[in-house]
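Here is this case:
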Amino acid sequence: MAIQLFHADTDEQIAATFAVMQQLRPHLQRSEYGAQIRSLMASDGLRLLALADGEVVRAVAAYRVMNMLYCGRALFIDDLVSDEHARSLGYGAQLIARLRDEAQTLGCSEVQLISRVTREQAHRFYFREGFGIECFHFRSKLA
């Protein structure tokens, strides 16, 4: 089977990423997913990068480019997930490599992401991919 990396831009392509994205974000509902992604694309410049092995999406990353005072232009990965049935096959590493290339093309100085403290397997992957822990991310939920 052929590996294909592509930006999910059409409604069909966006829908094809749902099953994998829901593994990371189980609260998502299929009936609302396309509209949520389209809304984030319009308001925040969100992009979806998908990796398909043959006809099946096996990994997906949601990301955006942000300009920040402390680091300038950065590619920020909101979500990155490989299909739980196809982990350790290099799909995540291929997404990261493509995102790094894209960040350079877009004039970004770095690639950033946030990962919950409980996701130890993901942390091992990020360390292997050259990411380091630089700060704490504080959060205060509002009612």
In short: The CA atoms of residues 115 and 123 lie 7 Å apart. The mean pLDDT is 92. The chain has one domain: 3-128. The domain at 3-128 is CATH 3.40.630.30 (Aminopeptidase).
